[in-house]
Amino acid sequence: MVTIGDKISLPDFPLLLAPMEDVSDPPFRAVCKDNGADLMYTEFISSEGLIRDAIKSRRKLDIFDYERPIGIQIFGGDEESLALAAKIVDVTQPDLLDINFGCPVKKVALKGAGAGVLKDVDLMVKLTEAVVKSTSLPVTVKTRLGWDEGLLNIEEVAERLQDVGIKALAIHGRTRAQMYKGEADWTLIGKVKNNPRIHIPIFGNGDIDSPQKAVEYKNRYGVDGIMIGRAAIGYPWIFREIKHFVQTGELLAPPTVEERVNVVRKHLRKSLEWKGPVVGINEMRRHYANYLKGLPNIKEYRSKLVTLNNGDDIEAILDEIIVRYSNYEIEASPIELINYHEKCPVN
Ligand SMILES: Cc1cc2nc3c(=O)[nH]c(=O)nc-3n(C[C@H](O)[C@H](O)[C@H](O)COP(=O)(O)O)c2cc1C
Questions:
Q1: What is the pTM of this model?
Q2: 3-state SS record for 67-124
Q3: Which listed residue, 30, 113, 331, 347, has the most CB atoms within 10 A of its CB?
């Protein structure tokens, strides 16, 4: 069992759904939860936005009981705003409050928020302490290895943040300068985990895209659990596949076409429920291609899915897909980790 603070108990080697702006909203989280995500986070929420009462920011606070345990993630570079935002988050009573010190994109990092604070550990500690003091929730942090190759300070960061009271740390094995380039390097994550002074759970993050890699990294770096982002987009089954492999050493068969389509259906229904008929339909459009990847000649159906404007019509197409591909077995194929260096929606 892995515990965060004294109220959150997770199973051994928990799998976390990474916070992802414009992706990890309630509809997406619902299908990840169904498929085994043990702890999930909201997409990051600007502390300034929350204080200004920006509708978009407030909406991101929506969480549901079936999602628990769930964390709300905030970011910001100003002590007072972060502390105030933490108080606003308190009202919605998530299970934990996570601070983002990892976002590399210019509009965030260069304002001293996100990964920006990796250049100023004193400030990072001060901001964290302010949040810890202003909330009754367990506070956790998600960050990167450091600012760049010349400033790999995660070992110092981990100790100092633990000293001011954070209850878990998730580390993405890249620097801010790397954005999403190159391969994530987990060596330093392993070092933090194996530092005898560190007693809070350490979650590793970066480039996990298969059960084999998850187990290899678990064994090699000894982390308490792993956080998965891009591999879950269009493939929430990654969680159950990793779990099965950890428990049995055997690979689970990939989801059938019917299972895939039914997850699309649930995602769509949740999207309509939470976002309403117009935004719900629109925002769902970017997900179909990811879910249906690998099906031959799917283009014709896909173009219908992304042009229809009514939930029932879309579901009728989904039914057609199940019938059309009823005898088709999708082979297990590597999950493609999109390089968000240029595509990152928060850029
Ligand atoms: C589309 C997208 C949006 C993201 N938004 C956030 C965010 O809001 N907060 C955060 O801490 N990290 C964010 N990240 C980073 C991920 O949480 C994660 O650290 C990163 O994708 C590496 O993990 P992966 O290789 O499993 O995808 C985002 C990543 C992507 C791809």
A1: 0.95
A2: HCCEEEEEECCCHHHHHHHHHHHHHHCCCEEEEEECCCCHHHHCCCCHHHHHHCHHHH
A3: 113
Give the contacts of 109 (CB within 8 A, at least 6 positions apart).
Answer: 103, 115, 116, 176
Q: Mind listing the domains of the chain with CATH numbers?
A: 2-252 (3.20.20.70), 257-324 (1.10.1200.80)
Mutate which of 45, 98, 183, 230 for ligand 1? The one with the most ligand atoms within 8 Å of its CB, which is 230
What local confidence, expressed as pLDDT, does residue 68 receive? 98
Tokens of 239: 């969680």
Question: Higher-confidence residue: 131 or 334?
Answer: 131
Q: 81 or 107: which carries more pLDDT confidence?
A: 81
Residue nearest to atom 6 of ligand 1 (CA): 20
Instruction: Take residue 33 and report the two structure tokens written for it.
Output: 């939860």
The amino acid that residue 247 corresponds to is: Q
